[in-house]
TrEMBL record:
It comes from Aspergillus chevalieri. This is NADPH-dependent FMN reductase-like domain-containing protein. Pfam families: FMN_red (PF03358). The keyword Flavoprotein applies. Keywords: Flavoprotein, FMN. The keyword Flavoprotein applies. One of its GO terms (molecular function) is oxidoreductase activity. InterPro entries: Flavoprotein-like_sf, FMN_Rdtase-like_dom, ISF_SsuE-like. Signal peptide: none annotated. It comes from the Eukaryota. SUPFAM superfamilies: Flavoproteins (SSF52218).
Amino acid sequence: MHILGLANGSLQGNSEILLKAALNAAQKEDPSPTVSWIHVPSVSIPRNPKPLEGQLDISLGTVDSMKAGNDHDSVPDDREAVLTAILDADAIIISTPTYSHQPPGVIKALFDRIGGPYVDASFAELVRQGQAAEDPNFANMKFDPRLQKPRVAGFMAIGGSRTPDQFTMALPSLHVLVYPIHAKVVDQFIGQGVAARGSVLLQPELMERARQLGRHIVSQMGKHFDDAQYLGPRDESSCPNCHLSKIELLGKDKSIGCITCGARGKLVILPNQEIRFDWEDNSIWSCITMEGKLKHSKEIGAWGMEEQQKLKSIEKEKQSWLDLHAPKVPLPSESIWSKLDS
């Protein structure tokens, strides 16, 4: 069993310290799992790379952008090493600062290149089912069996502000990174009032909270998605899937949706004028449930085939837009890298 940590902040910063506190506590709780970590901003990714070899194509070959990119680039490519570390892990802990209400975008850029539809656990299941049924659409497809192993996750998001309004999208942005691999989030928290590097040590309660998250992680490792328990904070209005209270109103019939994962429910006004949220059980709209993932995978495959049949009708118009000259801002790196690539 292995726990992988992802630190998304500055080198030797608060995110790194909290991550190490969580990993250390996990090993003290149970010495059997091994641990390792990656400093996400240090990961090297080529410019406009093609997907890694062997990654899934959820569009069934109908969306050519799933395969687009450069074959060669002088920038070293760490994507395979990071993806291997993620898929090998039985637990993932992400520790990140919060910039402008969200985690720094470098972690989203990384997961956009190696995660999302390329590692969709539900599509892997559709491939397995399709091959068992001898469906020709899936005959030549392969998927990494590590996509279907049990995996848990935990999130720590911190920032200098001491008011919750500055962290509104911090945890939701982390959920979207791990739901494709069907990792069960078992704990998550936000730490406020942490700005200067090392200042987290001025708040012993935050250090202990990180240790608690590490203990929670190790206690749920190896359990299947439905068996692993969520041990983090929650309240009565929380979505039962992501355990956050990020809610949007859908129409005029008191329907609600979870902004983080898409689950649906109803807003209920009680006789005493208090508000309650009644959420659907195992919502097919939630990207966290396997049912929700399967619905989306099937939808993308079906729509891709339908759209593919219409593309020839707009080929000339598309090319005219691509040929239209619009001045680009010259970037110094373009001339430098073109010389290195030649």
